[in-house]
Automatic annotation (TrEMBL):
Matching NCBIfam families: PPR
Protein name per Swiss-Prot or TrEMBL: Pentatricopeptide repeat-containing protein
Signal peptide (UniProt feature, chain positions): none
Keywords associated with the record: Repeat
A Pfam family that the UniProt record links to this protein: PPR_3
Lineage: Eukaryota, Viridiplantae, Chlorophyta, Pyramimonadophyceae, Pyramimonadales
Length: 111
């Protein structure tokens, strides 16, 4: 990105992570996430939505991968939005945890 005059900030990291996650490139999404944190950018709801989306569309993931993303989001006190909940539901479904998927819901419920 820098070679094209685009500086990396949280928004550009999130945008690229989102594109990679939607393409099922989970490893690349996670690598970008690690680079983002290394450069000192704090993850936000869009970051975790991109990670959950990558979990939903990736191949060979385990339930522990999805749980790890959800736990880090909670640890950082990032409040999910409707897109985040949807991504986590899809991620749990993708790893065969449909019972967990149906329990994912906002607390308190979204309006």
């Amino acid at each position: 990105m820098e070679t094209r005059g685009v500086s990396r900030d949280r928004t550009t990291f999130n945008s690229v992570m989102n594109a990679c996650g939607r393409a099922g490139q989970t490893d690349h999404t996670v690598a970008l996430y690690k680079e983002m944190k290394k450069k000192g950018f704090m993850p936000d709801v869009f970051t975790f939505t991109a990670l959950a989306t990558a979990c939903a569309r990736g191949v060979g993931l385990r339930v522990s991968d999805v749980v790890a993303v959800e736990e880090e989001m909670a640890q950082r006190e990032v409040q999910p939005n409707v897109h985040t909940y949807t991504a986590f539901i899809q991620a749990y479904r993708a790893v065969g945890e449909w019972r967990t998927a149906i329990r994912v819901q906002p607390s308190p419920p979204l309006p």
